[in-house]
Amino acid sequence: MRLAKMAKRIFVLGLDAFDPKLCFEKFKAELPNLSKLMKNSSWGISNSSIPPLSCTAWISFAKGKTPGHSAIQGFTSRKDFAYTDFFVANSTIIEKERLWDILAEQGKKCIVMNVPVTFPPYDVNGIMVSSFLTPNADKEYCYPKEIKQEINEIANGYVIDVKGFKKKPKNVVLKELKGMEEKRFKVAKHFIENKDWEFFIFVTTGTDRIHHAFWADMDETHPDHKADTEFKDAILSYYKFIDEKIGEVASLLGEEDVLLIMSDHGAREMHGFVNVNEFFIKEGYMKMQEYPSEPTLFNETKVDWNNTKVFCTGNYIARIFVNLKGREPQGIVKKEDYEKFRDEIKEKLLTIRDEQGKKMNTKVFKREEVYKGKYVASQPDLIIYFDDLKWGANQMIGFNELFSHNADKGRNSANHYHKGMFLLHNAGLEAGKRSEINLIDLMPTIIRLLDCEVPTAVEGKSLV
User: Fold this and answer.
1) What fold is seen in the domain 9-268+417-449?
2) CB-based contact 401:278 (threshold 8 Å)
3) What is the pLDDT of residues 386-403, one digit of tens each?
């Protein structure tokens, strides 16, 4: 049922990786502010982007389109099909057609705070504070520049991210994650009360980091779980901390304001990594000029490209590229053999069993089956969810075995999951749980609620 009304302002609280099974089920009784909002809000599950990586997901949300409309493949992407030349996701290579760009063009005052892939920041008819992909706090991470001093004074030193959180002592990580978001929420609340805005989006990072660092402590079924862990309730504690902040933010909004709480994707247990390039080497699809003496990043190894047919980039979710003649610099797979070879690789990957020899519930996506847009051709030939993301992908070479339990940045017991959450409050929609939506549906919903025109090229379907 559509009961939409126009909003005076919309505040979007983006909780990166906030998981629906945790917030709506397992922890619900411990989250009084979220539970209270659920009683008179429209809420449920949103299907994330393919792949459900923060970069691709937040871009897809903001554009209202699948990742085929962006040149970005993940946090790092291949540059012009080069083998080892990668670029870090940044705002300069994204067309200015994201949600705040559309609203700014139609005269709305916007505040964009900590949304992934907003560095370097730019004019959005308001304020932009860039995200964890900002190289360091010495860079200009605010627009206008003068806001940086104000932010640092409010927060007593703004924090870009908790660096090295997968290797630091866990008690330090927990303290730093809470400290980081405490500072950010302090700034966000100051902006809510003291700045002129009609659209405000603020995204947390700690809600993602907490799963990666502490899932095995929480999950008694995880192979890395230790019964005597002192961090069993670390994730619950963090969700309760975020719930307190939800209450604080909600209390600052007016009767005509709409509140959207959302995540770009969810989280789930991860039992380890499939070393995909090791699999290709074993199966004879990849050859090395020199096999590394220790686990080494893919782009730092010496691959024999003249005798390599396929390779994997990226971690967590495998991004598979065929070494295609005429596309890659030293491609050897002929164009007329591409489809047959890609199907062969797909079937090979589906045969991989887990460490106990059990069949995996692996999903393999061809880019053209899940994407539209002018950048489809630059996206991976195949995208792999090993055992529905219970196993991550590892692009490193040098393990000399199929499975590993540490990627390039240290311990990690959780993967991203393709189901995120949303809660839309005071939007005139019927209260209660609704059927699943797509992440890209939220962008046109926000635009319509602000009584603005949705671009015709948007693929998402408005909820109002």
Assistant:
1) Alkaline Phosphatase, subunit A (3.40.720)
2) yes
3) 999 999 999 999 999 999
